[in-house]
Amino acid sequence: MILPTNKLLFYTLRKTILLSLLLLTHVMTYAQGVWNGRKCAVALTYDDALQVHLDNVVPVLDSLGLKGTFYLSGYFPGYVNNIARWKSAADAGHELANHTLFHPCIGDRPGREWVNPETDLSRYTVKRMTNEMKMTNVLLKTLDGKTARTFAYPCGDTKIGDVDYYKTVADDFVAARGTTGEMKKIMEINLADVGSYGINGESGEKLIELVKRAQETNSLLVFLFHGVGGGHSLNVALAEHNKLVRYLEQHEADIWIAPFIDIASYVKEYQSKQTK
Ligand SMILES: [Zn+2]
Question: What is the CB neighbour count within 10 angstroms for residue 248?
Answer without folding.
Answer: 21
